[in-house]
TrEMBL record:
<dbReference type="InterPro" id="IPR008979">
    <property type="entry name" value="Galactose-bd-like_sf"/>
</dbReference>
<keyword id="KW-0732">Signal</keyword>
<dbReference type="Pfam" id="PF03422">
    <property type="entry name" value="CBM_6"/>
</dbReference>
<dbReference type="InterPro" id="IPR017853">
    <property type="entry name" value="GH"/>
</dbReference>
<protein>
    <submittedName>
        <fullName>Carbohydrate-binding protein</fullName>
    </submittedName>
</protein>
<dbReference type="InterPro" id="IPR005084">
    <property type="entry name" value="CBM6"/>
</dbReference>
<feature type="signal peptide">
    <location>
        <begin position="1"/>
        <end position="29"/>
    </location>
</feature>
<feature type="domain" description="CBM6">
    <location>
        <begin position="437"/>
        <end position="570"/>
    </location>
</feature>
């Protein structure tokens, strides 16, 4: 295969970088990030676009800062919490902020030990703790209009915050707490053990005891807070091997804190290192991951300043939020340094990769782009490490060109990279084809349903098992976050499958408005797509959230069953 290199002259690039305001970092040894757009890692779910204590008071930050970054979920303090993390005043009550998370299409995890004000938590007694557990669970059960709670995190960082002397061994304490929660709420998932870093010995002991006592968490979690993320993928692989060894069925993994602040450069605020974290989390296949909390509530941990202005790192998550289609394989030159994550949308004929964490003249080589034709338009942008309080109005353009491509492969040199900055390469067909305004169900926010695959589905994926038992804790729905250019009424076409043999229905609502009903005539069978129905939605310019539901708050419930392939706006 002949390789077509896409490069600009070093002198021209140097001028471009200087004009963009980027620092002139001395060049290091050149490195190459290899991306294979034909290697699917699964649908884009924006798994790592979440935050610990990301929200506050149901209005901080402004909703306009949340929709573009496509938040997966947030971990928030216990209902009624008096917790003062890192010297901050109490805030971010999980049930108080749940409506804002819902507006953004995000789930909420309740961190139960945050009912205590101090950190590390100051144990009182078992009677005190179990009373606090009872109160939190009852508060959650009383909140019957909140359906985006994804689970209870029973404890946090037990390796050093659990008072073994006063409370007994953690494994036994886990069983007592688990059983207390389950005695009142047998439905909502339980998450743990939430250790501060992955430790095979701790996890082996915990999982073995939980397996033998019937108290395994539905979601397994730990933190990745090291100053560099090179262990992330290995930790995930080690955990999966431990599951197999112990005969435990695979659990979703939640990395409910990632990103360090352990040195004089707060890497959680540096887009370059964050790109490397996300790359490893995506390749590891985590279900969700939250930016660590080091500073202020209500900023998604440094992404937003003055409540409605983006920082440099926000733009990295905006690039992440823009990804559609399927995440694809990336191969860094080493476990440390240059790395990135990428997505390819065959339907829209668009590819993007976000990368960073190394200075100097580096290269991104992309293969598997045969579907884009012989000429492509490419654009390279950068976003700086601005810190938590500096507004960055937009990324800087480093390079923009149209070039010929052969064999579906391009190679782009990005000179003068800064280690702390992140970069995005966008490659699109130069043919000017207007792609459909299509949103894939498997790329949407999915609550209590499953992402599945079918050769007849658009982009190969769909959402099925959209079920509901009538209990608000089992509400099942799909939230599509859409971005439209103008305020008007749009025709919305829904691709679906209905194998019931009869007409089925979903509830339809958008932007928290009133409910209507969509009817789906029977189709050939489950997982066999091609059927469509159309309706109208009245949307405002910019971001909107469209919900299709079997069951959801303020909705009486749908009839029959339907699988969702996509929605398309016209």
């Amino acid at each position: 295969m002949k390789r077509t290199a896409l490069r600009c002259a070093a002198t021209t690039a140097a001028l471009t970088v200087a004009a963009a305001g980027l620092s002139a970092t001395p060049a290091l040894s050149a490195a190459t990030l290899v991306v294979d757009a034909s290697e699917s890692l699964g649908p884009v779910t924006h798994a790592a676009s979440g935050g610990l204590y990301a929200l506050a008071e149901n209005e901080r930050p402004d909703d306009s800062m949340l929709h573009p970054i496509r938040m997966r979920n947030v971990t928030q303090p216990a209902p009624g919490s008096l917790h003062e993390p890192n010297g901050q005043p109490p805030g971010g009550d999980a049930l108080l902020v749940a409506p804002q998370a819902d507006r953004a299409g995000a789930g909420v995890i309740i961190r139960m030990p945050d009912i205590y004000p101090d950190f590390p938590y100051q144990w009182v007694s078992w009677e005190d703790w179990l009373n606090k557990v009872d109160t939190q669970v009852q508060d959650r059960l009383d909140a019957s209009t909140v359906s985006n709670v994804e689970g209870y995190e029973l404890w946090n960082e037990p390796g050093w915050t659990w008072d073994t002397e006063a409370a007994g061994p953690f494994n036994e304490g886990w069983v007592r707490t688990f059983e207390r929660v389950r005695s009142q709420d047998p439905v909502t998932p339980i998450i743990g053990p939430s250790i501060s870093s992955y430790r095979e010995d701790f996890m082996r002991s915990f999982l073995t005891h939980a397996r033998d006592t019937g108290t395994l968490p539905e979601v397994v979690c730990w933190h990745e807070l090291q100053s560099t993320p090179e262990r992330v993928e290995q930790n995930i692989a080690d955990y999966r091997a431990l599951e197999r060894e112990l005969g435990i069925s695979p659990r979703p993994i939640a990395i409910n804190e990632y990103g360090s602040s352990y040195d004089d450069r707060d890497k959680v605020d540096q887009p370059g290192p964050v790109a490397s974290y996300i790359a490893k989390l995506e390749r590891g296949g985590v279900d969700s991951a939250n930016r660590a909390f080091w500073y202020e509530y209500g900023t998604v941990n440094g992404l937003v300043t003055d409540n409605d202005k983006p920082t440099g790192t926000w733009w990295l998550y905006k690039w992440y939020g823009d990804m559609t289609g399927r995440m694809v394989g990336t191969e860094p030159p080493a476990r440390r340094g240059l790395d990135g994550f990428a997505a390819y949308d065959e339907e829209r004929r668009a590819f993007s990769v976000v990368f960073g964490d190394q200075a100097g003249d580096n290269t991104v080589r992309v293969t598997g782009l045969e579907g884009l034709g012989r000429r492509v338009h490419l654009r390279v942008e950068s976003t700086p490490a601005s810190g938590r309080f500096t507004h960055v109005p937009e990324p800087a353009t480093v390079l923009e060109e149209t070039r010929a491509v052969e064999g579906g492969e391009v190679e782009v040199e990005v000179p003068g990279m800064t280690e702390t900055s992140a970069y995005r390469l966008v490659v699109e067909s130069a043919s000017g084809i207007d792609h459909p305004q299509r949103y894939e169900a498997e790329n949407a926010s999915v609550f209590r349903a499953e992402r599945l695959e079918s050769g007849t589905a658009s982009n190969g994926g769909y959402v099925g098992r959209i079920d509901n038992s009538g209990d608000f804790r089992t509400d099942s729905y799909v939230d599509f976050t859409v971005n439209v250019p103008e305020s008007r009424e749009y025709t919305m076409t829904i691709g679906y499958a209905n194998g019931t043999g009869a007409v089925a229905t979903h509830g339809l609502a958008y932007n928290g408005g009133p409910w209507s009903t969509v009817e789906y005539p029977a189709t050939g069978g489950w997982g066999e797509f091609g059927g469509t129905v159309s309706t109208t939605v009245d949307l405002h310019a910019g971001y909107n959230v469209i919900r299709l539901a079997k069951g959801a708050p303020h909705f009486g419930g749908a009839t029959g069953y339907t699988e969702l392939d996509y929605i398309e706006l016209d």
